[in-house]
Design a protein that fits this description.
The chain has strands at 3-7, 10-12, 18-25, 32-39, 46-51, 58-60, 68-73, 78-83, 92-100, 113-114, 118-122. 32% of the residues are buried. The chain has no helices and 11 strands. Helix content is 0%, strand content 49%. The radius of gyration is 13 Å and the shape is globular. It is mainly β. The strands form 2 sheets. Strands 2, 4, 5, 6, 9, 10 and 11 form a 7-stranded mixed β-sheet that branches. The protein has a 4-stranded antiparallel β-sheet with strand order 1-3-8-7, with no helix packed on it. A hairpin with a 6-residue loop joins strand 4 (32-39) and strand 5 (46-51).
Length: 124
Amino acid sequence: QVQLVESGGGLVQPGGSLRLSCAASGIAFESYHIGWFRQAPGREREGISCINGRLGLTRYSDLAKGRFTVSRDNAKNTVYLQMNSLTPEDTAVYFCAARARTFGCALGGVYDYWGPGIQVTVSS
């Protein structure tokens, strides 16, 4: 059974940091790019980043550049999203998703599998 599970969310103060994890099971981990997305109430889902399945090359949306860093540990079947300098605008449900490597690493479009999402709240 394919499963993606996010962890590491919660409440953080403005200017603070969080590190999200995405643990995958049931798939050949290196055969999939992993994307991070978020969705806030009343807003469309936003792409954050994508990390290449094998080489670890990364792409970032404008909202993430300079603040967020994605990495992966293939030995642990886990992808991380380090988020720094957080603001209340970063409050959202964050999702990780897997896309077959043959389709390319993208900040949008179709992904094969999705995690359930995890809440991140930035507030003082």
